[in-house]
């Protein structure tokens, strides 16, 4: 069972999948918090960890020493702490469409990770690669630095269209928690300029895999390799002897980018829980 | 899996590097995205909008030094000679 479904799913909605439970988009999101005393966003991961716990500097120190026990302990603490204040889960395109029907308002915004990692300042709707969702977005003007590039509020159809366009470009879709269980953002991510994907791929921290895994139909696959370019997680390669795509399903995050990109419809997503060995593999 | 390895030590002279968000040369040339730029951390400034042209409003740091391959491209591209990389 996905930890978030366990805690925040409701069997009445979407078979108990947490992000299909509408209450996770509303309550409490509008509370006007005091200006944060600690770090937020990228800072959570980069410095001091979350809630005073260990962070990246301590992790790298353990790596330098080659202290594997300490390294794993810090990694696990960082991961657990992420989900008390943030964290994210990968969503395939079809689930993303369902999510966009549940929340309102929806605002397209600039990406805070790309701003930090590559100093990219996304300032208009052509450039925005991030989405703020739910009533929390209504108070965006309280954070002029965060929303420097403005906000473009869109309706459900426009949001879906934007999301499909991003999918075509090859971005992976991540649903962001703003203090579990409240859902506040939906990002278009890639490696290395998305901090969530980066910490997941490099350290296995802070990102849950989706409820699906990708599977190749070897009869349909002709080895064109389009899917390989679309995988952000290093889970896909061309197997040289068979000349077919090969997916390492333990590495697969179930984003479905390979599925939506395959010109022959040779890749499909199957439910994670249908595969016993993968049913509890979330990181 | 980890193996003990001395990671490169990257120091940024903030006296010299004052407008990293405007300059952004090292941030964009680094093949492994080692650098980050953030607004200055002074608490009372947290809600304010920052002008990237003002000295010290943004700070550059190198949190992902574990990814540094010491290609020295950042050093070559830095217009104010603010970056130093030490390899142990």
Question: How are the SSEs ordered, and which strands pair?
Answer:
The complex is a heterodimer of chains A (283) and B (88).
Chain A lengths: L2 H6 L33 H5 L9 H10 L2 H18 L2 E3 L2 H10 L3 E4 L2 H7 L11 E4 L18 E3 L1 H14 L2 E6 L5 E7 L5 H9 L3 E2 L3 E5 L9 H5 L5 E4 L4 E4 L9 H5 L5 E5 L12
Parallel strand pairs in A: 1-7
Antiparallel strand pairs in A: 1-5, 2-3, 2-4, 3-6, 5-6, 8-11, 9-10
Chain B lengths: L8 E4 L7 H4 L1 H5 L6 E4 L18 E4 L11 H5 L5 E4 L2
Antiparallel strand pairs in B: 1-4, 2-3
Question: Could you explain how this protein is built, in words?
Answer:
The complex is a heterodimer of chains A (283) and B (88). With 283 residues, chain A is of the alpha+beta class. In chain A, strand 5 and strand 6 (183-189) form a beta hairpin. Chain A is globular and about 55 Å long. In chain A, helix 3 packs antiparallel against helix 4 (68-85) and helix 5 (93-102) runs antiparallel to helix 7 (156-169). Chain A has a seven-stranded mixed beta sheet. Chain A has a two-stranded antiparallel ribbon with strand order 8-11. A two-stranded antiparallel ribbon of chain A has the order 9-10. Chain A has helices at residues 3-8, 42-46, 56-65, 68-85, 93-102, 112-118, 156-169, 195-203, 226-230, 257-261, and strands spanning 88-90, 106-109, 130-133, 152-154, 172-177, 183-189, 207-208, 212-216, 236-239, 244-247, 267-271. Residues 34-42 of chain A have low confidence and may be disordered. The longest helix of chain A has 18 residues, at 68-85. Chain B has 88 residues and is an alpha+beta fold. Chain B is built from three helices and four strands; from the N terminus they run E-H-H-E-E-H-E. Chain B has helices spanning 20-23, 25-29, 73-77, and strands at 9-12, 36-39, 58-61, 83-86. Chain B is globular, with a radius of gyration of 14 Å. The model of chain B has no long low-confidence stretch (mean pLDDT 92).
The gist of it:
The complex is a heterodimer of chains A (283) and B (88). By secondary structure, chain A is an alpha+beta fold.
């Amino acid at each position: 069972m996905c930890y978030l479904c366990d805690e925040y799913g409701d069997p009445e909605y979407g078979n108990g999948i947490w992000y299909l439970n509408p209450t996770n988009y509303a309550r409490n999101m509008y509370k006007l918090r005091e200006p944060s005393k600690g770090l937020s966003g990228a800072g959570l991961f980069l410095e001091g960890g979350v809630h005073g716990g260990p962070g990246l500097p301590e992790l790298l120190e353990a790596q330098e020493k080659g202290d594997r026990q300490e390294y794993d302990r810090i990694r696990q603490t960082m991961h657990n702490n992420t989900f008390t204040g943030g964290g994210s889960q990968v969503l395939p395109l079809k689930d993303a469409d369902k999510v966009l029907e549940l929340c309102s308002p929806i605002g397209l915004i600039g990406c805070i990770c790309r701003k930090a990692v590559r100093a990219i300042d996304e300032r208009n709707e052509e450039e925005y690669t991030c989405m703020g969702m739910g009533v929390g977005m209504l108070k965006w003007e309280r954070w002029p630095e965060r929303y420097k590039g403005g906000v473009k509020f869109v309706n459900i159809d426009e949001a879906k269209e934007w999301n499909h366009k991003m999918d075509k470009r090859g971005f992976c879709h991540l649903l962001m928690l703003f203090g579990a269980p409240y859902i506040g953002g939906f990002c278009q991510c890639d490696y290395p300029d998305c901090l969530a994907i980066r910490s997941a791929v490099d350290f296995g921290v802070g990102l849950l895999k989706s409820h699906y895994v990708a599977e190749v139909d070897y009869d349909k696959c002709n080895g064109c390799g389009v899917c390989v370019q679309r995988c952000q997680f290093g889970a896909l390669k061309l197997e040289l002897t068979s000349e077919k795509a090969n997916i390492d399903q333990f590495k697969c995050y179930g984003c479905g980018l390979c599925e939506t990109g395959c010109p022959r419809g040779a890749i499909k997503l199957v439910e994670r829980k249908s595969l016993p060995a993968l049913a509890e593999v979330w990181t | 899996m980890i193996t003990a390895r001395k990671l490169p030590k990257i120091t940024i002279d903030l006296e010299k590097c004052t407008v990293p968000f405007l300059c952004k040369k090292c941030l964009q040339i680094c093949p492994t995205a080692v650098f980050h730029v953030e607004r200055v951390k002074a608490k009372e400034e947290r809600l304010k909008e920052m002008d990237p042209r003002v000295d010290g409003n943004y700070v550059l740091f190198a949190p992902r030094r574990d990814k540094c391959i010491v290609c020295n491209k950042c050093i070559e591209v830095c217009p104010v000679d603010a970056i130093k990389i030490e390899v142990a």
